[in-house]
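re: ur question from the group chat, yeah i did fold both. here u go
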Amino acid sequence: MAGLNPGLCDWLDAQSLSDLQAWKAQPVALAKAVSQWLPEAGELLALCEVTESEGGQFDCDSHWSTGVPGRKWEQISAFNRALPYSPGKRWLEWCAGKGYLGRILAVTREADVTSLEWQDALCVEGQAYATKHKLPMRFVQGDAFASESKKLVDECDHAVALHACGDLHVTLLRHFVAAKAESVTVSPCCYHLIHGRQYQPCRQSPSSRHWY
């Protein structure tokens, strides 16, 4: 990377952790600061703006937030409001944890949700909540990197992933393109948590239908 843009790398190396936190809270200022190396920074920032659904039809009653940390509930609620309308009832929650997002999808989208999660204890707890509250959720304990997980993408109408780190969200996107599924929506993070030495950006395949 240094060979591609040494000036930007030097600037980043000079930033302290507190500087980085400040830049994170001021994306417009950050885009302006790095525009001398990345002239398209402003355009990239504009692409990050997400329009929420109108009329609040996908707002969810806060009593479904039981057990969900406050900030995570805010993130899940915002993610759900930003999801496009999808007529399909078969939703896949990728890297689900306890299924906090899945329960909101089941309630607001009247969807049948399959929640894939690696940790068995989280699956058990999530399924117990769903069963108790009669939510149409099915937890599947499995490895998102395993080839068997692709079948879940093949069978869904809309796949979602909120904070699926590194290659976890990349794997979902690749499965989605291969399956030619209806829709996929991801809010990725931790791009550095990958198997390879260098992150490889993704691009939308012409064969895919909806990619958010």
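okk and heres the other one u asked abt
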Amino acid sequence: MGEKMKKGIYILPSLLTCGNMSCGYLSILSSIDGDFTRAAWFLVLAIAFDMVDGRVARLTKTTSEFGVQLDSFSDLISFGLAPSIMMYHLVLNSMGKVGMAIAILFVLCGALRLAKFNVQSQDEAVHSSFMGLPTPASAGLLLSFVLSYELFADPGQSLSFKTIPVLMKNMPIFFETMPVVMVILSLLMVSNVPYYSFKKMKLSKPKTFRLFVLVVLLLFLMIVFPQNIIFVLFSLYIFSGLLGIGVRYYNAHKK
């Protein structure tokens, strides 16, 4: 009985990672079918699985090289291929070869980012920051743009091939800026811009309580204003790395 429980504990993180990969694949199918709102929500679920699997592995002390590699494959599908295909069918395909090149660039930079992370993780140290924008954050910002359509649409109306003209009318800046946003996100993923890693965050009892209150508040806000909160959270995280670079540059030249 104990041996079965031990095997179950070891397989649990991998099952969560497979949940991440499955959501990424379902997002791709939804984008191909033209249901972009559903594709975006599948990516939200993929991010949730990605946030949990590593923490479960560390809490149960079942981290392994197999888990690291499986997680990277899952992330490439969910946060590289899936958002790239979603944005290609939604925006980039109207740009011809340039749009195709931007979509491919996003996937390639995501793959390079994950490969770099795997190399850095071989020292088995828990780093306080990531070098380069994590792939879930880049995918999160893109899906937040897609979900924001619901703020302008009629109740119950989702973003699909049929409603793209409505999006073009209500959010023309979306189509104008999205190619540039994707190029910037691609470059940030392969950059050396440091982004905070929550893996090293040590929680004392007061911190645990404050974090619990913050999580409950965020969950409440996400239920009431899901599109707004998702966009704000990922935007703040992406700008935090750039702001950190700016502050360090200012302090270095102030002396």
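fwiw on the second one: The chain is about 75% helix and 0% strand. The beta strands are 129-131, 194-196. idk if thats what u expected
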